[in-house]
Amino acid sequence: MKYMTSAEIRQMWLDFWASKGHAIEPSANLVPVNDPTLLWINSGVATLKKYFDGSVIPENPRITNAQKSIRTNDIENVGKTARHHTMFEMLGNFSIGDYFRDEAITWAWELLTSPEWFAFPKEKLYMTYYPADKDSYNRWIELGVEPSHLVPIEDNFWEIGAGPSGPDTEIFFDRGEDFDPEKIGLRLLAEDIENDRYIEIWNIVLSQFNADPSVPRSEYKELPHKNIDTGAGLERLVAVMQGAKTNFETDLFMPIIKEVEALSGRTYDPDGDNMSFKVIADHIRSLAFAIGDGALPGNEGRGYVLRRLLRRAARHGQKLGIHEPFMYRLVPTVGQIMESYYPEVSEKADFIQKIVKNEEESFARTLTAGQAYADEIVAEMEQAGQTVISGQAAFKLYDTYGFPVELTEEIAEERGWTVDKDGFDQEMKAQQERARASVVKGTSMGGQNETLQALTVPSRFLYEAQEADSRLVALVQENVEVDAVEAGEAYLIFEETPFYAEMGGQVADHGQILDANGQVLATVVDVQKAPNGQPLHKVEVLAPLAKEDVYRLVLDKDRRRRVMQNHTATHLLHAALHQVLGKHATQAGSLNEQDFLRFDFTHFEAVKPEELAQIEADVNIKINEALAVQTVETDIDTAKDMGAMALFGEKYGKAVRVVSIGDYSVELCGGTHVGNTSEIGLFRILKEEGIGSGTRRIVAVTGREAYNSYREEAKLLQELARQVKAPQVGDVPAKVEALQEQARQLQKENRELKEKAAAAASGQIFQDVVEAKGLRYIAKQVDVADAGALRTFADTWKQGDYSDVLVLVAAIGDKVNVLVASRSKEVHAGNLIKELAPIVAGRGGGKPDMAMAGGSDQAAIPNLLQAVAGLL
């Protein structure tokens, strides 16, 4: 077996499969595109689902890739095991309806064992297989594998709900008895016992059935096109081929660990307690790659995952004695390790470091806030005479404030207390279940549509035309290809068409299909790409249509023009975002409709009003400059040399279209655009909002809609001028300011009158002092207009020595408001109000000296007042 670097192993994998006719698919962005079933790209096949379900036919049915992936449903195990990671690389080879079992197994054996390639010792390889899959067993035997190295496993069958499924055969490497101290042997594999001896390095999924949950597996129907889906973990291959004890003692992780050693002054011991080093090395890889791909730390979804990763790594840094931000310093090292295949981390290192450092500093502030919360818990427990910190409180300290449970246990131990660890574990388990539930919200893969997949007739989109005569070459109704239709819904493919199929955020064209006499035969309501890439027209048939006849195809020209205005404005907006916010503000999705445009982009904070105004102004300046919009078809490398920017989530073939708007914007784009920016007319931003952690959205309008938007606003301003009695619209700000000043004066007078009334009323209220257990207290119902008046009474009470405790109750509207104030160390206002509030069907809380509550049972107010003495 050869010793190879991780970069050499990755490259050899790709070279081998390229030699077998596979196209090398670039590693996709970690943030899924148009796939709500995934939180992250979590496998090599995740980006290829459209090929497996038949919705798109690839140019080459043989594909290979090295795909960066993230899985975070079991974060707490990272660092504890030898091979558990959040971010990893999955090497894969895939066949979409081309070769199948025999070739997949034969080539896997060749790649692993041939001296030309990885040169694994054959005697060290073991395979598992699905017991009913005799064909795989026989193929391994034919290749010379000993029967004793083949292990049947009932779980070797891949399926996730309805859709493609099939048996799989896994390949394991035997590291020997040194990793099997109890000499259990092959039972470790057969009985699926967790072990470090047999390392799974490759899984070959034979996707040959269409899974149907309503029938037994034995009744699954065969797929019309069988597929191969494989996955080999790069980190595991590297560990085996570099003779490392764990994945972490490889060239993928050790440079990071060495950097942590330098920062902490501690030494990594492969045989000792090294969990903190492993956690940090793993998590900074995930953070660097995910942030580089546009995800940002936040409070939900992907952002929450990143925040958890960073805070967990930062806590382990503290365990190593690092008490200042340090994770950001590791980003360049991650970039250097991965640069040969993933240059983007190094290219974006400054931005990634900025985000990581900001998050680390924010976490430090959160820890300070957590200490304050911990102090509050301690004070309440001492007041109540408790000695066990609840699992809920310990978990809140951990989850919200980043306190490791060990720190909470230290706080408890200092006082002779304990922590409800079982309760904490239950809260942790519940959170993990929520995390797992949030990963997948739909089915994994759709079923294959054999009818549409079989449509291979060529069709050409006419970019410049808005109508054309064209021959009908394919016609489908009710999922059956037919020669003619008379009425109803149908799907059509023409030899060439001016109708744009929805793609890249631009909606489909609508229009009509006419005969030679101008009679409307069908209405085009949608156009999508067929599996083989042709524009597939969804139509409502009004009169008979026949295959091979020639028809007149006519667009809804007004719809197309308005969509083009919005689409071209999107390019200008993207460029303006780069100019104003920075290069990190890249597209994360878009929609170009006829009435508006929507643009999603990555940014770590809300866009400031002055920035938004500048963006809008910049776009309108470019519209006013009447810049030519030019389109050139070229190859991808030439396009990149021209400075063309590829859009998030788009896949580009050998030939691409470069859309240039003066020297302001150059992008790869297959959509339709106006010929000159002046045709856009006007651009206006309607709103800017956050739609997820690190992702913002701008909704804007152009042309007619932008003009109408300004007209509507002008009407509102005129109405406002009328209501505030301003002579002109321009006088409105001064008039409003004068009214606001008048309102402030009235509020001041009102407050002063309330204070005088409260002072007058308090003269009587504060005289009704009662004593209980040596405590003087006042408990009264008062007649006030709002809860603020209760606080005014309390402020007056604090200025004199009227009593030790004050309890005031008011019926305001249909609600009950309660206030408790205390100047006695023996009475905690927040605790007292928690006892009183339920009497009036309410709840509340507060600090030791002041607390408030709300309730709904006004009839119970006398009961509350009577209960005060007993509670004191």
From TrEMBL:
Needed co-factor(s): Zn(2+)
Coiled-coil stretches: 736-763
Biological processes per GO annotation: alanyl-tRNA aminoacylation
Subcellular location: Cytoplasm
Keyword annotations: Aminoacyl-tRNA synthetase, ATP-binding, Coiled coil, Cytoplasm, Ligase, Metal-binding, Nucleotide-binding, Protein biosynthesis, RNA-binding, tRNA-binding, Zinc
InterPro entries the record matches: aa-tRNA-synth_II/BPL/LPL, Ala-tRNA-lgiase_IIc, Ala-tRNA-ligase_IIc_anticod-bd, Ala-tRNA-synth_IIc_core, Ala-tRNA-synth_IIc_N, Ala-tRNA_ligase, Ala_tRNA_ligase_euk/bac, DHHA1_dom
Binding locations of Zn(2+): 567, 571, 669, 673
GO molecular function: alanine-tRNA ligase activity; aminoacyl-tRNA deacylase activity; ATP binding; catalytic activity, acting on a protein; transferase activity; tRNA binding; zinc ion binding
Gene Ontology cellular component terms for the protein in this record: cytosol
Entry's cofactor comment: Binds 1 zinc ion per subunit.
Enzyme class per UniProt: ligase
Domain Alanyl-transfer RNA synthetases family profile intervals: 4-712
Reactions performed catalytically: tRNA(Ala) + L-alanine + ATP = L-alanyl-tRNA(Ala) + AMP + diphosphate
Location (main, coarse): cytoplasm
EC number: 6.1.1.7
Similarity annotation: Belongs to the class-II aminoacyl-tRNA synthetase family.
Protein name (record): Alanine--tRNA ligase
Species per Swiss-Prot/TrEMBL record: Streptococcus danieliae
Lineage: Bacteria, Bacillati, Bacillota, Bacilli, Lactobacillales
GN (gene name): alaS
